[in-house]
Amino acid sequence: MEIISNQSIMRTVSQTDIAPSIARSLGFQLPNPDGRPIEEIERWRGQRAILIIVDSLGYELYRSFLSHLMHMREIAASGFLFRALHVADHTSPAIASILSGLTPEHHGIYDTESAKRSPILSIPEIASSSGLRSAVIMEKGGAEVYDGLIEYIGAVPRTLPPDEFDHHICRLTLEALSADPNLVVSYFIGLDKAAHNGLHLDGFLRAAVSIDAHVGKIFKRAGPETMMVIVGDHPVHAGHMKNDDDQNVALIIGRKA
Fold this sequence. Notes:
globular; 257 residues; eight-stranded mixed beta sheet; 11 helices; 19% strand; 39% helix; single chain; alpha/beta
């Protein structure tokens, strides 16, 4: 597949811009976010948004693997690829920013326990309270934050091997899509585990290709008028592929007509 011209745009935005962009697309409001809707997609309106968070999907890592990631390339071909400035070096505060549009200083979420105690509302909760249907599929502790607050949660034990964990995330995401939700949030860990397990380039590439295949299945199942958002939580911060110069994550926003 030819690499399309949109993938060379590479404008830098912030992770805090993602939640306002999704909220604008689905027609609900966020309370005083730090981010703002991304102007290139500000007029997009749709029936569904699928947000896929890929742990450790740094921008430079994505670019280096681009030729192997046929499904992510396809989604970018329908929209845009951005560099997104990451707001935290760790997963919990980064995901909280992605889902709330707030910086860590303003949402105060730094781990699962503080997420459970936090009064801050994120886009799945706000969407559900606005009459839409939301689904969150992630590791067990994070998914349980939404228990009783949204229509569907998929909880996967973090103790599973990375490939098995990601397989279950994909399976539960496809199951959630069968219920026709308006917002789906899913979280994949294979790249991050490759980093912390000390894998070299070939191990990272296997993890990236596996996640790309899962993304392809989800995109295929997504119905019309769906906005697809794929973003890293932080760049690789451990192991052989760590790059201290990479302060950005990949942000792919596309749509299924």
